[in-house]
TrEMBL record:
Pfam families: ADH_N, ADH_zinc_N_2. Its EC number is 1.-.-.-. The keyword Ribosomal protein does not apply. It comes from Duganella zoogloeoides. This is NADP-dependent oxidoreductase. It comes from the Bacteria.
Length: 336
């Protein structure tokens, strides 16, 4: 079968479409014919080698984390799916890849595809949906009436997180460029800061939750708008010693990550805020709950570009520019 393979870190030329053996469904797995694969910024970070210490990822490896497709084989012990079921899933950090014609998916990572979404729309959801869900339900414990700041609201994670926070009863503020103000308002953002015109730290105050989605100084700046008792959840780091402990890393890694996060934890502490690093995990039950929100229309996919499988490398390069409005998806099979 065809798959997008990474053979070496830090080299764009090490990404190529290649023929690899078709996987089989091991016990507890389903084999999915992939119809579409959603791309995420972490995919490019993996190519650059930024996640080498953190991921179960051995080269050469099939790229991609998010997929939607049809079950063609079920392994022993599988009870939730049968051949012919349309599913969507994240295989992030499982040692498997989504940018391929077929993918073996752990049963626990998959959910039935929402009936009202096509495969491209469904493939755009898993990582951003699970990231937002776990950030708000497990880390920040968002409550109705709280104020939540989600920067970069027109991006893949931002466009989903705004909608989920609103469904949880929060008041949401975001930043975006002038061209995307209307988009983020349509997603439910209550306070929209055009970063080309305003500094969000001069406009916002007393926020309960900050979702860290932007590299650079943005996270430290966002600490200026939080109130005592707030939660700051970062998706881009730095990781903490607690994260290293949860991952089963040795004491050296725990110390290193404690040092890496010491400054931001100290700044958060000065504001009476709690800082945590969020590393998404596949979870089919959570994905099913997200699917229900999608089926009712409470949340909608936001897709910027759809590329054919032959242009998967170009799709990753486009995503890496950081200008996508919503998600970038690769169609790996012809539209039905």
């Amino acid at each position: 079968m065809q798959a997008l393979i990474l053979t070496a870190y830090g080299k764009t030329g090490a990404l190529a479409l290649a023929e690899v053996a078709r996987p089989v469904a091991a016990p507890g797995e389903i084999l999915v014919q992939v119809h579409a694969a959603g791309l995420n910024p972490v995919d490019n970070a993996i190519v650059r080698g930024e996640f080498k210490p953190l991921l179960k990822f051995e080269l050469p490896a099939v790229m991609g984390s998010d997929l939607a497709g049809v079950v063609v084989e079920v392994g022993a012990g599988v009870t939730r799916f049968k051949v012919g079921d349309a599913v969507f899933a994240s295989v992030f950090d499982t040692g498997r890849g989504a940018l391929a014609e077929f993918a073996a998916v752990p049963e626990h990572a998959a959910a039935h595809k929402p009936a009202n979404l096509d495969f491209v729309q469904a493939a755009s959801i898993p990582m951003v949906g699970l990231t937002a869900w776990q950030s708000f339900h497990e880390h920040a414990l968002v409550k109705p009436g709280q104020q939540v700041f989600i920067p970069a609201g027109s991006g893949g994670i931002g466009s989903f997180a705004i909608q989920l926070a609103k469904q949880m009863g929060a008041r949401v503020a975001t930043t975006t460029s002038t061209a995307n103000v209307a988009l983020v308002r349509s997603l439910g953002a209550d306070e929209v800061i055009d970063y080309k015109q305003q500094d969000f730290t001069q406009v916002l105050s007393d926020y309960d939750v900050v979702l860290g989605t932007v590299k650079g100084d943005g996270l430290a700046q966002a600490l200026g708008i939080v109130r005592p008792g707030s939660k700051v959840v970062s998706l881009i780091g730095p990781p903490t010693a607690e994260f290293a402990r949860q991952r089963g890393m040795n004491v050296v890694f725990r110390c290193v990550m404690g040092l890496l996060s010491r400054k931001i934890r100290g700044l958060a502490g000065q504001r009476g805020a709690a800082y945590s690093f969020m590393f998404v995990r596949p979870d089919g039950a959570q994905l099913a709950a997200i699917g229900q929100l999608l089926e009712t229309g409470a949340i909608r996919p936001v897709i910027d570009q759809v590329y054919p499988f032959a242009q998967a490398r170009e799709a990753l390069a486009y995503l890496d520019q950081g200008r996508a409005r919503g998600k970038v998806v690769v169609r790996t099979a012809p539209a039905p």
